[in-house]
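The records we work with from here on pair a chain with its fold. The integers have meaning only within a learned vocabulary of local backbone shapes. A complete example follows; check for yourself that the lines match position by position.

:::
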Amino acid sequence: MSSSSTSSQEENRKVEHDDRETPSPNRVEIRMSEIEKEQAKDAIGKQLASRSTKEDLQRNHILKSTELAPSLQATALHLEKEMVQNDLARKLGERSSKSELERRHILIGGGAAPVLQGKMVELEKELNKTMLKHQVEKRPSLQQMKDQNIVHEGPGGVLQAKHEELQRQMKLDNLNKALETRPNVEELKHKHIITEQPGS
């Protein structure tokens, strides 16, 4: 072999070796498209795993039920729509009126613009606070309540008031029982406790 052919073979090997180390643009594109295919395959696999079941699709009226004969499917769909409409009409009939919602403070009334409704609620709260503060300031003092026998001194103040109330009630009950069982006028005359007065 000549030296020119040997050097030519070495250059060819060198070129082949360089091709393996630095891929050509076509090889890069092929590798990229393979990676993209794998990514797309993974994405589709994830979507298929999380897709709705046939029953879910039928329940959400996306897929028609195949349990009925095709001739009955339209009628069943019409009946189901009517049932939903009837249920909706019933619920709308049962809903609270505007005045009830306003009374329960769910809906803010007064005809004010929505922008002002929040301020109205804040002002109403402040007004209630102010009124409560004035009522607390006007309430009678502890001494006045003691003088009016509303509050009792001592460790059992509340219990003492209850005790006194019970005693009053017991006295009243005893008096009523005594009045119910007292003898009438005829019995008192018969026992000679009272006598007939002349002229009566």
